[in-house]
Inverse folding.
């Protein structure tokens, strides 16, 4: 073999031409493959419902199902309590004990909320009335609003927050500790022993609390209206002039309806408790939320039913 000399080595220009030829060939092959891939028919896209929409639909179905279950359980519990009342009655000692618990323990919160609300309402009403020179309507406006609306609604919400939560927590604790199962094993009806006394106590005590709420609200408004410059005698005369006994009756009818809501819903949430201590807290929270929402919804319909027409006062 002969040795390669410097003369026989390829020139740099030739090497460059070969490199450009190889690069151009590789690029052409890549472009050719990309064109072939683009020319291939694409598979049909999946037109099914995205997973997120399926989850939303499932959540809506579950929510609707939960509402139906709640309505069914509360209706059944109400009918069972009514049937137990007419068949076997209620233990008077249990009823008095529950009246003391749900009534006496709720007085302070009802009086605090309504008296403060009456004072604030009188502040705005008196300020506006002094500006327009119509101070004789301050007492009547406050009295009409409290007897028909503010007293029953505020008292019902306070009652649900205090007594309703206590009922749901107590019954829920008995459920998770299997005390309710023990009652059934001893042939003792949980409806007669647990539900009926609490519902009747709520129905009997809430109207009395609403009367106290009306008095506290008017008293708070009376004090604050006097501070704003409204003569006390004029305030009292305005209340007597612009309010009637029917206004108090409407408020008491609302109070009875709100008491039934609080009693039945709280007992239903307590009896449906599952999951130990965490479940008791969840049932208590659900009880308060449901009671407050249902009170406002019921108030809307009761206002339409009890007030057929607006009469001039």
């Amino acid at each position: 073999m002969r040795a390669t000399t410097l003369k026989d080595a390829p020139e740099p220009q030739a090497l460059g031409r070969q490199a450009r030829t190889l690069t151009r060939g590789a690029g052409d092959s890549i472009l050719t493959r990309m064109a072939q891939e683009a020319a291939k028919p694409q598979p049909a896209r999946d037109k099914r419902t995205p997973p997120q929409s399926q989850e939303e639909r499932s959540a809506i179905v579950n929510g609707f199902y939960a509402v139906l279950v709640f309505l069914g359980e509360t209706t059944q519990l109400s009918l069972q309590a009514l049937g137990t009342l007419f068949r076997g009655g209620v233990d008077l000692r249990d009823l008095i004990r529950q009246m003391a618990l749900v009534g006496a323990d709720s007085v302070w919160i009802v009086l605090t909320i309504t008296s403060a609300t009456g004072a604030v309402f009188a502040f705005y009403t008196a300020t506006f009335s002094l500006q327009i020179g119509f101070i004789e309507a301050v007492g009547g406006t406050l009295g009409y609003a409290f007897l028909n609306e503010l007293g029953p609604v505020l008292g019902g919400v306070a009652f649900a927050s205090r007594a309703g939560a206590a009922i749901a927590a107590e019954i829920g604790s008995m459920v998770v500790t299997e005390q309710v199962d023990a009652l059934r094993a001893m042939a003792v009806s949980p409806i007669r022993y647990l539900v009926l006394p609490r519902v009747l106590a709520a129905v009997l005590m809430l109207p009395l609390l609403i009367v106290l709420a009306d008095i506290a609200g008017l008293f708070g408004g009376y004090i604050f209206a006097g501070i704003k410059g409204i003569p006390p005698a004029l305030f009292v005369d305005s209340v007597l002039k612009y309010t009637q006994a029917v206004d108090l009756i409407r408020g008491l009818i609302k109070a009875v309806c709100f008491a039934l809501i609080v009693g039945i819903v709280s007992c239903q949430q307590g009896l449906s408790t599952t999951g130990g201590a965490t479940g008791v807290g969840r049932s208590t929270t659900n009880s308060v939320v449901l009671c407050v929402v249902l009170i406002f919804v019921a108030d809307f319909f009761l206002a339409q039913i009890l007030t057929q027409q607006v009469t001039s006062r």
Observations:
- The two ends are 130 Å apart (CA to CA).
- Residues 55 and 61 are 10 Å apart (CA to CA).
- The chain has nine helices and no strands.
